[in-house]
Amino acid sequence: MIGVISVLNNLSNILIAVTTIVSTIAAIMGVNNRNAIKNVHLDINSRMTELLKATTSAAHAEGAKDGLKDDAAAKSLVLDQAAARGVVRIKP
Q1: For each successive 10 residues of the chain (92 residues), what is the average pLDDT?
Q2: Strand (E) or helix (H) holding 91
Q3: Predicted local confidence at residue 66, as pLDDT
Q4: CB 3.0–4.6 Å: which of 47, 55, 81, 82 could bond 88 by disulfide?
């Protein structure tokens, strides 16, 4: 009986040691994974920021271009109306 208890006691000590080693390895891997995930997250955020800035800039440029077209058309209309009333003389 004492021999069985001694074997079980040794077996439990071995299992505790194995469990401790495996959990330590898992904790180290978790820290490494967290750092890798953090790096991917930062890369994606920086690329999304660049994309949003480029998209905003392109939309602003497109709006400015359309605004210039509208301004030119409006100025032309005003000049045409003024010329029709004889207020402004348009040079040929």
Answers
A1: 72 92 96 93 89 84 65 66 62 54
A2: none
A3: 64
A4: 82
Region label for 89, one of left (φ > 0), alpha (ψ between -120 and 50) or beta (otherwise): beta
**pLDDT, position 59:** 81
Tokens found for residue 44: 């994606």
Residue ranges in the chain assigned as alpha helix (H): 2-85
With contact defined as beta carbons under 8 Å apart, do 88 and 78 qualify? no
Residue type, 64: A
- For residues 13, 17, 19, 22, the Cα torsion angle rounded to the nearest 10 degrees is -160
- Report the first-to-last Cα separation within the chain, whole angstroms: 120
pLDDT at position 31 is 94
Residue 73 DSSP class = H
**Side-chain half-sphere exposure of 43, counting CA atoms within 13 A:** 6
| pLDDT for the residue 78 | 66
Chain-centroid distance, C-alpha 1: 66
